[in-house]
Amino acid sequence: MTQTSQTVGSGPQKKRAVILFADILGSTEFASTQTPEKYSEMVRAFHRMACEVIQAYERAEKLSAGRLHYGGVGDECHVFLVGGGPNEDERHAMRLAVRLKQGWMNSDFGKDLAAFAQNPYGTKVDLRVGIGCGDVVFDQDVWTGEVTPEGIFISQAKRIESLAEQYAEKTYILVKLDIKEAAERAGLEIEFGDRVYPQAKGFDRGNTEVAVYPVLSWKEFVEVQEQVAPQPQSALDFARFALALQRSGDLDGAIANYMRSVELDPRFHEAWYNMGNAYRAKGEHDRAIECYEKALAIKPDSHGSWNNMGVAYSARGEHDRAIECYEKALAIKPDSHESWNNMGNAYRHKGDHNRAIECYEKALAIKPENHESWNNMGNAYSAKGEHDRAIECYEKALTIKPDNDEAWYNMGNACSDKGEHDRAIECYEKALAIKPDKDEAWNNMGVAYRHRGEHDRAIECYEKALAIKPDKDESWNNMGNAYSAKGEHDRAIECYEKALAIKPERLESWNNMGNAYKHKGEHDRAIECYEKALAIKPDSPEASYNLACAFSLKGQVPEAVEHLTRAVALNESYKENARSHSDFDPIRNDPEFCKLVYDYSQ
Q: Domains (ranges, CATH) in the chain?
């Protein structure tokens, strides 16, 4: 398949082109199990489909001569778009990629290959699409005499061939960074996944120039699908249509079609399983569990159903039930690093960090390059207070995936817990360079600056966090602390009030607002705040101690001694605090105070 309408003067001409490259995943494995005639039939059908889709798109978009160049050989086809306005060719490439994928899914050979993959001896055969750009030299082809694109930087798009195959399960398009940025500039409502790197030798994993981004969902995918997809007839048709909608982000549409599928075939366990995944993605974990149970009633040895039901139980906070599910999954598939990792998460959420670490070690013994398990094991060590071990784990995760914002953020927290605030700030900055809208990183970087005494920088960070998430009560509280440290108690009180409007039961903010009023000399208002804190948590030693301070400053000795006695009973260290705290100077000579604090009568 070779098409071109380019006319040029004498000599080669170099132009920038957006390059779309599509190849058949699994074609080599398929060829090894088929006759040459069967393989040739698949390839020819693929080229017919691709040519029809590309030409139909060219006509529909009324692209002028010289804008579109396409061809193919073997199990590959390529399209070059040149001469468009800003972002225009990138947009055409994205839309054409969707149509090629849909053409594949709706073709007879595509459906046959999907059915073939269900065979125990079958091979998964699917279409992968990559989009990149580069300089193309148009010159006369020495074989055909036609003007064709030469000197192609097609490897920029073709690098998808060296990516791990699981990405073909999760997406239908992989794009280069410049294409992603052009799509964003064009205002396309596309959800991109984290960048991924080629697995082949010779590629630098940390070099963003060789990375690609999977397209996770796109509204236009649904719109195109509605135009080109035939109406489903069988349970399998409805399930396939549902899965396409699910991958595009239309979860409600997917669920409706899974329901049609299981109405036609109630024992279609894959449809029940995928419907469970759709409900889980919506956050409807009860409904997800019902679907997984249906799938397991039909196919009790479905590792995926047991594993994902565990994830749903964990999301409901039922970690014991989740662990039971993961154990079932691992009895079926003992080498599932995903189930070991998930079980580790469940133990960690239960507070059983040692068991969690054992599970993460199992996961990593199976898949040492699993950055998620390294990150999660770091979290378990951090929760145990073993921050050095935690940092080692985060560093492992980042060696594997340098753009893992969670690992940078978590390592910042571990450094902060160690008191290494400079290093913590460096880590938060790394996380934010990857994900600028990570509100928790802005918040925690503010805390680190506050520990360094840089309260203005801290406030800037809290403001960034609140610009992203205005209802983040923690950031309002922390900004109040920064203003209070600057002596700006009125501004501090405003912040605490914001925090409490969002979360009225926030004990810390009531205590902090009480302290701000106390510093202003408004002891009655301070007492009101401390009493609110004590109403939330009657056994709070801090609230009792603060009340004792406020009553002391007012000269109300019995009340001060009463609350100080309660604070000391709850936490003996408050006795030592009271010996030197100036708030107690007004009652320092009181016999009851002396008896309590100095263990003798004055």
A: 2-230 (3.30.70.1230), 231-299 (1.25.40.10), 306-368 (1.25.40.10), 526-602 (1.25.40.10)
